[in-house]
């Protein structure tokens, strides 16, 4: 069975790549039984989006300062 360290690693990796069917199944089973990892899996997409928005704003801010 997957442990929390493995689960959080896969949750993070899922933002960058597609997980295999076996990874998805194992992760889903773990997340169903682990409230901590379930919470983490719900927060990661939000954090990823927030960081992308921040990076975009940061780039735009520097572009306007260079002119």
Describe the protein in words.
This protein has three helices and no strands. It is an all-alpha fold and 67 residues long. It has one domain. Helix 1 (4-13) crosses helix 2 (21-33), helix 1 (4-13) packs parallel to helix 3 and helix 2 (21-33) packs across helix 3. The longest helix has 31 residues, at 35-65. It is elongated. The model has no long low-confidence stretch (mean pLDDT 89).
List the helices and strands and how they pair.
Layout: H1 4-13, H2 21-33, H3 35-65
Helix pairs in contact: 1-2, 1-3, 2-3
Secondary structure: helix percent: over 70%
Measure the end-to-end span.
55 Å
Query: Are there runs of 5+ residues with pLDDT below 50, and where?
Result: none
Number of domains: 1
Count every beta strand, where a strand is a DSSP E run of 2 or more residues.
0
What does the largest sheet look like? none
Mass-distribution shape:
elongated
H/I helix tally? 3
The radius of gyration computed from the alpha-carbon positions, rounded to a whole number of angstroms, is 16 Å
The sequence of SSEs as H and E is HHH
How does the helix and strand content classify structurally?
Answer: mainly alpha
What is the average of the pLDDT values? 89
Strand content: under 5%
List keywords for this structure.
single chain, about 70 residues, mainly alpha, 3 helices, about 80% helix
Short summary:
With 67 residues, the chain is mainly α. The protein has 3 helices and no strands.
